[in-house]
């Protein structure tokens, strides 16, 4: 890539697995399987390019109302990648953190997730946030209730510390694949000044080169954070 301004934090909405599979006359579960493979490929590439933080929307709170058969397939993929295939995550050599309410997962999968986060806790070069059963509105309401229960008023800084992304800088760039142009309850508080990039590619076909194009596009943008140029 030519000389560019790299985002510190990229977040991905990995949409389009189902449609990608359907176009190939394959079941949706196959799309998710290829989606996770692409997740490790694209996120590794982001870290190789020098991005420090990557966050992925693996399962939204609302996804939990999908048919049981599809949810079972998604849970099996989570079991696989935090279990037998955890090397695929660990070899990225970044700290892995899971955001969201994982109490909906089987207990052994919750334990596997804990083990992977412990095994990677000392990697300090990069941070990989995987959002599972995550919803931004739920996260905000939980934070408000926490503040109320502590009996204190919050300001922006102390409120951020009550979110699941406490201590993590906001995403500079949010990339959504699959052609839809919305945030779907992802990082709503943190996305206040994120640059948004929408790709028509389905997630399993989003390539390393597509990621580079998105970063190049980001790099050419003028981020003013509500200020004026040079202000
Ligand atoms: C959106 O595609 C994608 C999802 C709901 C799930 C994404 C999850 C993964 C890639 C796997 C996560 C696994 C681990 C181990 C972290 P869609 O099904 O909504 O696609 P569609 O819009 O074409 O129907």
UniProtKB/TrEMBL annotation:
Annotated EC: 2.5.1.-
Active site per UniProt: 15, 63 (proton acceptor)
Keyword Transferase: yes
Cofactor: Mg(2+)
Listed Pfam families: Prenyltransf
Entry annotated with the keyword Metal-binding: yes
Binding site for Mg(2+): 15, 195
Keywords tagged on the record: Magnesium, Metal-binding, Transferase
Binding residues annotated for substrate, in chain numbering: 16-20, 28, 32, 60-62, 66, 176, 182-184
GO biological process, one term: polyprenol biosynthetic process
One MF term in the entry's GO annotations: magnesium ion binding
The organism's place on the tree of life at top rank: Bacteria
Co-factor: note: Binds 2 magnesium ions per subunit.
InterPro entries, per the entry: UPP_synth-like, UPP_synth-like_CS, UPP_synth-like_sf
SUPFAM superfamilies: Undecaprenyl diphosphate synthase (SSF64005)
Matching PROSITE patterns: UPP_SYNTHASE
HAMAP family in alphabetical order: ISPT
Oligomer status and interactors: Homodimer.
Function: Catalyzes the condensation of isopentenyl diphosphate (IPP) with allylic pyrophosphates generating different type of terpenoids.
Protein family membership: Belongs to the UPP synthase family.
Protein name: Isoprenyl transferase
Gene that this sequence comes from: uppS
């Amino acid at each position: 890539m030519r000389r560019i301004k790299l985002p510190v934090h990229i977040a991905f909405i990995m949409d389009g697995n189902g449609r990608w599979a359907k176009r190939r006359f394959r079941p949706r579960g196959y799309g998710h399987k290829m989606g996770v493979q692409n997740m490790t490929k694209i996120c590794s590439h982001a870290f190789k390019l020098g991005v420090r933080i990557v966050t992925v929307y693996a399962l939204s709170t609302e996804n939990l109302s999908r048919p049981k058969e599809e949810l079972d397939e998604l849970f099996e993929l989570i079991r696989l990648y935090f279990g037998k295939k955890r090397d695929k995550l660990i070899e990225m050599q970044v700290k892995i953190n899971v955001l969201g309410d994982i109490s909906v997962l089987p207990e052994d999968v919750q334990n596997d997730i804990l083990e992977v986060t412990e095994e990677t806790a000392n990697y300090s070069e990069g941070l990989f946030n995987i959002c599972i059963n995550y919803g931004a509105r739920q996260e905000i309401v939980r934070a408000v209730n926490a503040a109320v229960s502590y009996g204190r008023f919050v300001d922006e800084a102390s409120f951020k510390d009550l979110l699941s992304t406490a201590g993590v800088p906001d995403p500079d760039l949010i990339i959504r694949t699959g052609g839809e142009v919305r945030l779907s309850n992802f990082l709503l508080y943190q996305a206040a000044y994120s640059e948004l990039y929408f790709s028509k590619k389905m997630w399993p076909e989003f390539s390393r080169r597509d990621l580079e194009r998105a970063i190049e596009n980001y790099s050419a943008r003028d981020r003013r954070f509500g200020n004026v140029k040079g202000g």
